[in-house]
Amino acid sequence: MTASWQLYVNEKEKIDALLHRGYVICEVTESLEGATVIFSHPTATPIQEVLTVETADARKYFSSLLVHSVTK
Amino acid sequence: LVNVSDNFREVECGLTDVEASDEANRCLYCYDAPCITACPTSINIPSFIKSIATTNVKGAAKTIMTANPIGASCARVCPTEELCEGACVLNHSSKPILIGKLQRYATDWAMKRNEPLFKAGEPNGRSVAIVGSGPAGLSAARELARFGYKVTIYEAKSEAGGLNTYGIVSFRLPPYVSLWEAQQVKALGVTIKTNTAVGKDIAASELMKQYDAVVIACGMSHVPMLGIEGETLSGVHDAIRFVEQTKTEPLSSYVGKKVAVIGAGNTAIDAATCAMRLGADSVKILYRRTVEEMTAYHFEYEFAKQEGVEFRFLTSPQKIIANERGEVKELECVRMTLGEPDAKGRKAPVAVAGSEFTMDVDIVIKAIGQTRHHALIEAFGLEHHHGVVAIDQHTLQTSVANVFACGDVIFGDGQGEAMVVSAAQQGKVVANSIHQRLASRQVTTH
Amino acid sequence: LVNVSDNFREVECGLTDVEASDEANRCLYCYDAPCITACPTSINIPSFIKSIATTNVKGAAKTIMTANPIGASCARVCPTEELCEGACVLNHSSKPILIGKLQRYATDWAMKRNEPLFKAGEPNGRSVAIVGSGPAGLSAARELARFGYKVTIYEAKSEAGGLNTYGIVSFRLPPYVSLWEAQQVKALGVTIKTNTAVGKDIAASELMKQYDAVVIACGMSHVPMLGIEGETLSGVHDAIRFVEQTKTEPLSSYVGKKVAVIGAGNTAIDAATCAMRLGADSVKILYRRTVEEMTAYHFEYEFAKQEGVEFRFLTSPQKIIANERGEVKELECVRMTLGEPDAKGRKAPVAVAGSEFTMDVDIVIKAIGQTRHHALIEAFGLEHHHGVVAIDQHTLQTSVANVFACGDVIFGDGQGEAMVVSAAQQGKVVANSIHQRLASRQVTTH
Amino acid sequence: MADLRTNLAGITSPNPFWLASAPPTNSGYQVQRAFEAGWGGAVWKTLGEPIINTSARFAAISFQGKKVAGFNNIELITDRPLDVNLKEIYETKKRFPHHAIIASLMVEPKQEKWHEIVKRVEDVGVDGLELNFGCPHGMAERGMGAASGQQPDLVQAQTTWAKEVAKTPVIVKLTPNITDITVTARAAVNGGADAISMINTINSLMGVDLDSWQTVPSVAGKGAHGGYCGPAVKPIALNMVAECARHPAIAVPISGIGGVGTWQDAVEFMLMGATGVQVCTAAMHHGFSIVEDMIDGLNNYLEEKGLASVSELIGKSVANYSEWGNLDLNYRTVASINTDVCIHCNKCHIACEDTSHQCIERKIALDGTPFLHVREEDCVGCNLCSIVCPEPGAIDMITLPYEQPPMTWNERQTVLATYKGK
Amino acid sequence: MADLRTNLAGITSPNPFWLASAPPTNSGYQVQRAFEAGWGGAVWKTLGEPIINTSARFAAISFQGKKVAGFNNIELITDRPLDVNLKEIYETKKRFPHHAIIASLMVEPKQEKWHEIVKRVEDVGVDGLELNFGCPHGMAERGMGAASGQQPDLVQAQTTWAKEVAKTPVIVKLTPNITDITVTARAAVNGGADAISMINTINSLMGVDLDSWQTVPSVAGKGAHGGYCGPAVKPIALNMVAECARHPAIAVPISGIGGVGTWQDAVEFMLMGATGVQVCTAAMHHGFSIVEDMIDGLNNYLEEKGLASVSELIGKSVANYSEWGNLDLNYRTVASINTDVCIHCNKCHIACEDTSHQCIERKIALDGTPFLHVREEDCVGCNLCSIVCPEPGAIDMITLPYEQPPMTWNERQTVLATYKGK
Ligand SMILES: Cc1cc2nc3c(=O)[nH]c(=O)nc-3n(C[C@H](O)[C@H](O)[C@H](O)COP(=O)(O)OP(=O)(O)OC[C@H]3O[C@@H](n4cnc5c(N)ncnc54)[C@H](O)[C@@H]3O)c2cc1C
Ligand SMILES: Cc1cc2nc3c(=O)[nH]c(=O)nc-3n(C[C@H](O)[C@H](O)[C@H](O)COP(=O)(O)OP(=O)(O)OC[C@H]3O[C@@H](n4cnc5c(N)ncnc54)[C@H](O)[C@@H]3O)c2cc1C
Ligand SMILES: Cc1cc2nc3c(=O)[nH]c(=O)nc-3n(C[C@H](O)[C@H](O)[C@H](O)COP(=O)(O)O)c2cc1C
Ligand SMILES: Cc1cc2nc3c(=O)[nH]c(=O)nc-3n(C[C@H](O)[C@H](O)[C@H](O)COP(=O)(O)O)c2cc1C
Ligand code: SF4
Ligand code: SF4
Ligand code: SF4
Ligand code: SF4
Ligand code: SF4
Ligand code: SF4
Ligand code: SF4
Ligand code: SF4
């Protein structure tokens, strides 16, 4: 059993990596499998990356970033 | 037995929060509870236990101390089996509530907080002198102060508390407990003049003159003589003095010593267990009568056996025999038998002819009762019977109008019980009597 | 002491329904509970206590008796402070759960109902002989019967139960308890041939021939000689025989007698308290070493003191002195001191030269251990060390292939504990070992 | 001594402890004994057309051997004529002018019935009225009590009728057997109620006798649902009080009822918005004297907190109460085990292992002693271990520093909505 | 050994003890441990769109020092993706083919959502479905759980949608936060439910911390109502089960939930009409092993009663349950005190004196010992004294011979109606 924390860290790292590379979240769809998050980048290739975010903590994480950026 | 002073730490430990809560929640909160009736000071036991259950520990402590100004000491030394706990209805279905321990839990809390629990009454301009700061004197003082009297206690010793401070062994009642009780009384404005013996440092007549009323709460005195040969040898002790030393002086080791304690009352038990805890090899309690007649409480008897004290019933000392250095070496005893019951139904012990025998002992501790403060009592001109002050049963007034008496000084001749809790109750009664008397006088004179 | 036989009624009373429910509801039902680990038979204690809490008393009794076929006796005689209760986590926060008393509550219920709690297994055609119907033998028999073996117990005495029936004082363990346990075993089809001593009424070799396996559970024998003068005088007793008499013959009064018990193990305590309850004037336990080295359990020591037994440590008997009628009159003793620790760290007691003294006694009871059934052990050809049968620690198999041993017969030399509960556990282990051995043989032979 | 006097919509009493309308307030004899014992007020046993009760009315459940964790009854309103009750109310009020006497009323949902009874009880000098729309059995079947209390329009209409003639404050007592208590509370407010009280009892069946297979209680072999009250219902009552207190449209004082047995319960109800409390079961279990520790404990608490008056408590925690959607998802708490205090029962371990997040590990220290270790990163802070832990202080729930700033579900959903795909 | 197997609308399990949908059934690891421990079935933690939980989710109340008399949570449904759950369900079912695994479901009230999830969970081999219309917080605010469960039409519609595609039995789990549970139960039946289960948790607030004045639990200083469960809610649940069981229009099996912690609780629920029970709080408090005594105690009870199968219990007490109007007003019971057994706590006296009918008198016997005397003629048989009495057997409630033949309130009113004046 992979500890649930580790699953979250894995997902978070993927999110962070994309953001670090300049991608921004442009679309979020929640479903029975969690959240499908579409990242886009104006210049990089590919211009879109899609992540399925499964863990609750990671779903909380990316939405926190969104809420935070909106309120800022 | 490495460190004797460890042996003089309090034996019983207080209840933990969990234990106190469990126990408090076990109480039924009886209506017109028999435990209350059985407590000489009528503490509202279900009420204070309920307060512990609701974590209103301050309320619990106040309920206790209101009814019993000596409630912290009583929580430790009351013969609860014979009193409150003995009357608990749960004796009939499981185990009685540990009332004493819960009382200790609440009063320990109050001691730790050390806030004054009570306020002095509006001063009423009257003054009362109290002779003795034992349980009886302190209790009377606390109540009188709450009624608004100006109270002065005269105390011969250097600390207040009476036998609670000096007489009951530390491992059952550490001195800080009675000192806290005295402190609570002082906080109400009561003056305690220590190191002041009435009849010596101040005359009885002086007190009668200076105060509107006088309370005699001087307790009893030292242990009387046995009247046998060898009583003045080195190694023969007065039990009360002996215990007092363990509470006031550095502890001396009794390792290797063989001790005989003469008598089987509360004092004998305290002295015997003290001797054990000082490291004695063996401690024997010698008593003329049988286990049935012994005045020590059941719990004391059990405690003493647990501590390893041995009992020799129907055994009477005849002579203390010295070694060449004038120290105790042997005790000659004689076996007794119980004769026919006398008028009071008490069987007198009779020596069995030719049954003399000796036992090896190094220490003899006398614990055959206490003598009376005859001189003091007579200085106040009080009627008494062999030093037991005569009083009106209800008011505790003595033969002298404004002099009242309470505590051990009125114990004896089948009158009362020599207990801390009854001394406390009598102190309250005296305070009430004085208040009734002086208050009514006020009405007539003004 | 009017009626001595009253003194031999069980001292402890069972829990009332209310007490049992309160106590059962106090258990935390720990996970992987330390009390279970501390019980040699690993009774699932939280489980049976939970069952008591839900009034599933039958379930509780079954849980207990499944793990421990001697569970009713153990509920009364286990040194619970050292075992289950000593490990209860509530020792750290309030008071441990009264596991023994709850166990007794459940097993008393089962005894009163007296339904068989278990069923014998499907007969497997194999047979086992067991020598001795004490805790070890009964436990092995119960388990083997549940596995489907045909079991025959040979018992020298007229009743089953071993020391539980004959050796442990009635006021701690009345005989009906162990007889019920034996009855439960018989109900599974086990044959108990009483009055049949192996080696006398039937030869060891006969057993080895007739049965697929043999279990040696004969315990230990009588108390050895002290090897001092006067040991055969009238008034000198073997502690085990002495206690046995109180369980099997009309009680004789010891009023006025002064008793010395030599030794300070479990047997000494039982003998000493027995003597007290027979009315003895005084009972002294004499022990060569100090309270620290004493093998009696703490609770036994406390109990003995409570009963009024006196202890004389560092005291060794030298000679028993007779009166003119050849009865015990005095015991000459010598004081001991503890020497340097030996290899095992045990300090040997050394006599203090010139410290001899005598004490007046009427009765001397020897309780300095038990001798071994050497002859029987050798008749089976078993390896042993001073009568302690050598075994494989895991299987309890002896040096002879199909012979297993359990209980006191394998106790000694630092091996095991002489306790009812460990005998019960070893009986289970033996049964399992036999089953594994014979079952696997079945596979290979058929 | 702190000031314990309370004023609920104009009804004053020496302390906030009232007896609820129930058997303890059945007669003048009882209410007078109660006032002597220290109770601040009493809501008289509901008046109306006198009924007939069954024998075998009450039942209770124990919890782990402790009696009366919950209580239940199939009793109806008063079975005594109105005149008798009014005479006793009059006498009691005369003896105790400063104590609050509130008349509980229940009549058929007809205007003239309400007018009549309100006038008659006010004539004898009550301090206020409580309209009982709550009794869940018996009366309900006659269209009264809960049956009308479950219909907002009837609640409003009847309140209006009572208010039309009432000169004293009108309290409306609500039934908890309702989907949303704030709906009936608002109906009461709309009808003009000066205050609301809650809760009455909850529909329940205490148990079945395992030997006779009859319900408990059983009337000649038959049972019917009764009303549940006592300590067990407190969390339900507390929530209903809190929901009303925080509702902007319900701006009237609240009298809190349901499971109050100690001064602590009272403090909680008051912090959550009640102006005072009413008690039934606790008094029935132990008698009137329980009010002594309630008063004393409340006073000691206020003194300890440095509050001069009990009214300073009212509603102080209401602002902390909200909807789930307003809770902060980024708040993090984790369990921390104090090995020194822990008694090694392993209850926390098995609770977390079997029924939470498998993050309390059993380990062995170098010296061989066992200890428990919380894998903090996997701990979700559910609180379970600290709830089951029997040893006070062995488990602390500690707050972790924020990794992300606070964010509620509502905030999250608002933002995500703007990112929604088609 | 009695036969403990149960069959609820076609779902079979080795015994009637299921774990309710809640944290204990959150994962395959846990459910497998539970089956190993002896549980007969498990309703998987509710599946749906995975949510985010708060930290600090649970709270509990103690009663007289005994922990977890009631439990409370603000947790939502599963926070794990459906696929993960389905994989674990599949594996668990493979390992334990004879144990019941029921998938609890909650999705938005849309037909296609229900179709999708039902198909997906049935694909992995569950034995049945439970539609969760009960969760009282969080989900309700999103129009799910209780919010839809409180509207009979939505209950019926969603049940219908699930049934349209379901191949396994559909259980509808009802919320107790409702005025009348039989209304939603009937809606479920009308929608085609094969069975109903109840209760989910009850809206509640566990308490307020007297030092911080924050609610318990508190999430960053804020609280919200949670769902109440555990021993305290049993009487509420038992009544709801019984009301459904005795309702002629609700003729489907019932799975009883709410406060079940012992075999006795299970027997009571089954006698009152449940086919089996579900457990959450008791398992969270003590771990999975509690099922051992449940099984053992149930078996011993059945053997004692001479019943071969647990199913013989089902519904046996339902006929004894009725409305108040059908109770016999002429049945008479009175208290009788056994002086020998009485321990003289006087609790019965003061309870009757202060809060009932003042008919237990304190007397003194000729030998000076006190005893209590019930004035039978004034005793109304309320049971209070016997409830508060701490000593088993000290008070018996004895049935008196009828003075008048039985008469119920309904009978009385019918007759009186014909005598009505104008
Ligand atoms: C060893 C021992 C153990 C006991 N154990 C218990 C027990 O376990 N439980 C229990 O309830 N009771 C016990 N008692 C009894 C109990 O201590 C007394 O009953 C109680 O202390 C009596 O209180 P009192 O105030 O009357 O007298 P005391 O406590 O004796 O106080 C009298 C005070 O008066 C002072 N005094 C005397 N003469 C004068 C004077 N002339 N001028 C000024 N001051 C004077 C004394 O110095 C003393 O301080 C025990 C007594 C003893 C001796
Ligand atoms: C006085 C006393 C008090 C004790 N108190 C406790 C206590 O409080 N708690 C505790 O746990 N333990 C106590 N013990 C120890 C405990 O009784 C033993 O450890 C236990 O009984 C050992 O069980 P066993 O089956 O091995 O032997 P035993 O109980 O001795 O049983 C052996 C049986 O074998 C029979 N036997 C012997 N030889 C033959 C033969 N040749 N043929 C046939 N049968 C034979 C004997 O008659 C006897 O019935 C006490 C022991 C004594 C003596
Ligand atoms: C036996 C009994 C009778 C009751 N009768 C009434 C009543 O006549 N009118 C009323 O408004 N409430 C009545 N109640 C409800 C109580 O007033 C109160 O609302 C409820 O018991 C909750 O409080 P508690 O938990 O303190 O008992 C009754 C309750 C009980 C137990
Ligand atoms: C923490 C917790 C979470 C729960 N989650 C769910 C859930 O996801 N789905 C559901 O149907 N019920 C859920 N419940 C309700 C339980 O299944 C059950 O109905 C309720 O707890 C009553 O049973 P009990 O008294 O045995 O706990 C939850 C209960 C608790 C305590
Ligand atoms: S003062 Fe003594 S008798 Fe009174 S309640 Fe306290 S311990 Fe019991
Ligand atoms: S008698 Fe016992 S149970 Fe009753 S109030 Fe007193 S202490 Fe509590
Ligand atoms: S058998 Fe003995 S050690 Fe084991 S649980 Fe019972 S009393 Fe404790
Ligand atoms: S250790 Fe103590 S509390 Fe824990 S299960 Fe064992 S008996 Fe119960
Ligand atoms: S708070 Fe919850 S998740 Fe964390 S350790 Fe405790 S039980 Fe486990
Ligand atoms: S529940 Fe508490 S006491 Fe028990 S092991 Fe865990 S931390 Fe320790
Ligand atoms: S049943 Fe009720 S009325 Fe009768 S004596 Fe008991 S409490 Fe009083
Ligand atoms: S409540 Fe029970 S035990 Fe107490 S006095 Fe009444 S009958 Fe006796």
UniProtKB/TrEMBL annotation, chain A:
It comes from the Bacteria. This is Uncharacterized protein. It comes from Fictibacillus macauensis ZFHKF-1.
Automatic annotation (TrEMBL), chains D, E:
Its EC number is 1.3.1.1, 1.3.98.1. The keyword Flavoprotein applies. GO terms for molecular function: dihydroorotate dehydrogenase (fumarate) activity; dihydropyrimidine dehydrogenase (NAD+) activity; iron-sulfur cluster binding; metal ion binding. Residues 333-362, 370-400 form the 4Fe-4S ferredoxin-type domain. GO terms for cellular component: cytoplasm. Keywords: Flavoprotein, FMN, Iron, Iron-sulfur, Metal-binding, Oxidoreductase. Pathway: Pyrimidine metabolism; UMP biosynthesis via de novo pathway. It catalyses: 5,6-dihydrouracil + NAD(+) = uracil + NADH + H(+); 5,6-dihydrothymine + NAD(+) = thymine + NADH + H(+); (S)-dihydroorotate + fumarate = orotate + succinate. InterPro entries: 4Fe4S_Fe-S-bd, 4Fe4S_Fe_S_CS, Aldolase_TIM, Dihydroorotate_DH_cat. It comes from the Bacteria. It is an enzyme of class 1 (oxidoreductase). PROSITE patterns: 4FE4S_FER_1, 4FE4S_FER_2. Belongs to the dihydroorotate dehydrogenase family. Type 1 subfamily. Belongs to the dihydropyrimidine dehydrogenase family. Involved in pyrimidine base degradation. Catalyzes physiologically the reduction of uracil to 5,6-dihydrouracil (DHU) by using NADH as a specific cosubstrate. It also catalyzes the reverse reaction and the reduction of thymine to 5,6-dihydrothymine (DHT). Homodimer. Heterotetramer of 2 PreA and 2 PreT subunits. This is Dihydrothymine dehydrogenase. It comes from Fictibacillus macauensis ZFHKF-1.
